[in-house]
Design a protein that fits this description.
With 402 residues, this protein is of the alpha/beta class. It contains 16 helices and 13 strands. It has a seven-stranded mixed beta sheet, sandwiched between helices. 45% of the residues are buried. Bound molecules: pyridoxal-5'-phosphate. The site of pyridoxal-5'-phosphate has 13 residues, from helix 6. One of its GO terms (biological process) is L-phenylalanine biosynthetic process from chorismate via phenylpyruvate.
């Protein structure tokens, strides 16, 4: 049976990581994998997380099964962190909300995909072009048909909002639109308030359901301002889904911590949707891992740890914008002109728009590892490597003349 297995393509990010690890050059630079890095290139554990773990070590009483919805306290705290106060405080409103703890943002996306495929097997799920590379396999595995809307204009190197609206007009009623809330991966271009309002009314007119993906909360413009798009959708839509990743925001990547929040029209629908989501989870991973959620819960429940975490997150956010400036200030001549758009983008990623030839040249000649299409993790740039990054970018630009 297994001898003739049909092998699909390897995840490009994991492939890049393997190539990076295999490179013997001690000066190699990884701008590919999407983890936050400090000025020394490390992905540190936050002090707030360490303190929360120390607290758990002392006070945790049991590791018994939690159930498919995960920890109810985690679910309540994450809902409060993300949603408008009014929605979480008023019992009538909160009855139309359902939050489930998931294994990372990826787990939340997959449960959302399974739920959509179950509720409307004919729905097309619309992804940005370019999408986060993992969106495609997650939703295809859920059996959904995929469509793409223009998002990034490779010539202007900015958001193509007109293209986005034009493409979404081809969607059929009942289709779902995946929109990243803040720090778009891979482009670093987000919608502004007016664009969110316009997109929201377009989706209402066309009867499309928004599926918001939030993986960089607090790392773009701030914990509250990164939720701008979510607030617009909350205000105007009765039916929406939100997938949340705690991986970057709390720096707990391998703890696999996230949540799926679903808002439905009324209480009865919410109860049915919740029950079916739990059934789908039982048929998949049964229940989410507990440790990451316990860390987040401990931090959000403690005034002191909450403040500490906010301080550390803000520092990381400011470092990311400093990294953009460091890169653009260090480039000169035509290369500086070519990459000036980097300063207008936000979050951990930017999209350099590099060809496969340029990317392999960067890997083979300069030991510089950059993701598909030229996605760079801006946080990977530091004082020590910025000179070599600039030289390498200049060299591939010279060779291809573009
Ligand atoms: C846009 C986007 N969504 C979701 C995720 C999922 O994050 P995780 O599963 O690591 O929590 C990521 C991670 O890179 C992402 O970039």
């Amino acid at each position: 049976m297994l001898q003739s297995i049909d092998v699909g393509p390897t995840d490009p990010i994991l492939m890049l990581l393997a190539q990076y690890h295999a490179d013997p050059n001690p000066e190699k630079i990884d701008l590919g994998i999407g983890v936050y890095r400090d000025h020394k290139g490390r992905t540190p554990i936050l002090k707030a997380v360490k303190q929360a773990e120390a607290h758990l070590l002392k006070h945790e009483q049991s590791k018994a099964y939690l159930g498919p919805a995960g920890d109810p306290t985690f679910n309540t705290l994450v809902t409060k962190l993300l949603l408008d106060d009014q929605l979480t405080r008023e019992p009538a409103l909160s009855e139309t909300l359902c939050t489930l703890q998931t294994p990372g943002g990826t787990g939340a996306l997959r449960v959302a995909g399974d739920l959509i495929a179950h509720a409307n097997p004919h729905a097309t799920l619309w992804l940005s072009n370019p999408p986060w590379v993992t969106h495609r396999p997650i939703f295809s595995s859920a059996g959904l048909q995929l469509g793409y809307y223009r998002y990034f204009d490779p010539i202007k190197r900015s958001l193509d909002f007109e293209g986005m609206k034009e493409d979404l007009r081809d969607a059929a009623p009942g289709d779902v639109v995946v929109i990243q809330v803040a720090g778009h991966n891979p482009c670093g271009c987000d919608l502004n308030l007016q664009q969110w309002e316009e997109l929201s009314s377009l989706m209402l007119d066309l009867n499309l359901t928004p599926l918001l993906d939030l993986a960089y909360h607090g790392l773009c413009t701030g914990l509250e301002s990164d939720l701008l798009g979510l607030r617009v959708i909350q205000r105007h839509h009765q039916e929406w889904l939100l997938t949340y990743s705690a991986s970057k925001t709390f720096g707990i990547y391998f703890e696999r911590t996230g949540a799926l929040i679903i808002h439905c029209k009324d209480k009865a629908v919410t109860q049915d949707v919740r029950q079916e989501a739990l059934n789908l989870i039982c048929g998949n991973y049964y229940m989410p891992p507990g440790h990451g959620a316990s860390i987040v819960t401990t931090i959000l429940e403690s005034e002191e740890l909450n403040q500490q975490w906010r301080k550390e997150l803000n520092k990381a956010r400011l470092r990311i914008s400093d990294c953009r400036k460091l890169l653009t200030d260090s480039l000169n001549g035509t290369t500086a002109w070519h990459y000036r758009f980097l300063n207008h983008q936000r979050g951990m990623f930017s999209y350099l728009g590099l060809s496969e030839t340029q990317l392999s040249e960067l890997r083979e000649q300069h030991s510089l590892y950059i993701g598909t299409g030229g996605r760079i993790n801006v946080a990977g740039i530091n004082e020590k490597n910025v000179g070599r990054v600039c030289e390498a970018l200049k060299a591939v630009q010279r060779q291809t003349g573009g």
